[in-house]
What does this fold into?
Amino acid sequence: MLRSVLSLRGRTIRHLGPWAVSAALFLVSGGHWATLQAVAWTGMLWNYSQADGSVLAGAKKTFDGEHPCPMCKSIKAAKDKERTAPVVVVSLKKAELFPSSLRFVLPTRCCVDFAFPPLSDAYADSRAQAPPSPVPIGALSA
It folds into this structure.
């Protein structure tokens, strides 16, 4: 049960990604204003066509620009306000790798003469006898 819920959730999230990107692009490009304007024009066309008795007369009155509805006026005001809104500029300070206010001092060791460790062969020291002088025949075949 839990596994099916998690796989459904993963599939849902995977399919939501393209939709979220599309919605973001729609809003950034001003698609919301175009949608609202289309809704306003549709309402105006309907109202003016009913009032004048003709779709052609309603279309002329809708799109001539001289008879804006309250929704068209508010959309225009909001778009103008959005265009003239002050742009907030954030000044970014250059990142300093080593700040000048802090002083880093690396500890150094005093000069010490370097000496190699003494040479010793633990295996050679543990042998009590010297190797046999004639090499055994079994050692040559191995």
Observations:
- The CA atoms of residues 93 and 99 lie 12 Å apart.
